[in-house]
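Q: Hi! First time doing this. I have a protein sequence and I read that you can turn it into a structure. Is that right? Here it is:
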Amino acid sequence: MNLVVSDASPIRYLVAIDAVHILPELFSKVIIPESVITTELQGRKTPSKVKEWASNPPPWVDVRRPAKPESLNLHTGEEEAIALALELRTPILLDEKEARDVAKRKGLLVIGTIGLLELAASKNLVDLTDALEALQKTNMRVHPSLIQAALKRQDGAQSKPPQGRFIE
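A: Yes, that's right. Below is the predicted 3D structure, encoded as structure tokens:
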């Protein structure tokens, strides 16, 4: 994959578990809406580690505003991320269920934090078990069945080559 647009939560949790390094290995450029950087990743309740990262994003991050923002009854960052992904015709990194559903209805390929970690593990960029354990120690709300499904897919993938479809 080349470009990808990201909402706040995948960035937030990858930074929190020290796995944000996987993004430039998986994508040539990560587009983040300006509102996500300034409001969500640098908000009052944002962990200092994430604020620090967002205050000086790496060169592989491009902060943009969508040319045509859409009103989708979601948070501003999610709406802008979806609008940018539609404009750029690129996949989107999203975790929140309602936003994922909207993005899928609009025809976007949606990749969540767990899917990113699975993809990274398939390329030997992270140990999936360790990364998922670290993720569970954050405040990310993820159903245990999603963690178990990812681990099961990894166990099955060890006997066959990766298929390239990671959207959890």
